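User: Can you predict the 3D structure for this chain?
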Amino acid sequence: MRKILLVVVVCSAVAVVFAAAAGQFQPLNAKPGLWRMTKAITWTDLPPQMAAMMKAAPQTTTYNSCVTTKDLNTNPWANGSGDDCTWTVLNSTSTDMEVQAVGCDFGKNSGMTAEVHGKIHLLDAENGTGSMTVTLTGNGQTMHGVATYTGKWSSASCPAH
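Assistant: Here is the predicted structure, written as structure tokens:
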């Protein structure tokens, strides 16, 4: 009888832990469809030649992101950014998501690897903001950047590719 009671208690405890873990990953409560994104990035710790190159590049860019219902469980604004990162969700509620990324395309041509960590916040189902810290390492150098995002839902459908 004690063994059965112990098994029931252990199984109940495991079920509570899994339920709590599952509860912390909710999809964002954003409208799927076409989002218009604005990204501004500021770099620090740049060597002089990179600083000159970055000053010549646009610091603010806009892009369209086609967000599907499935994307609301990962970084929904990654589509269209051109960064091609592998994203992992660390925590997510209906309004806030914490993400990290590895393997991003930016920096690869220069022998650099990129890691990103950030947060997305929905103001409502059609408007959101975000902030990401970027670390580029390689060639004996480390560079840091902070990207801020604003997103506005545009339409329920996305243009065909």
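The CA atoms of residues 86 and 144 lie 19 Å apart. The beta strands are 33-44, 60-67, 86-92, 96-102, 113-124, 127-138, 141-155.
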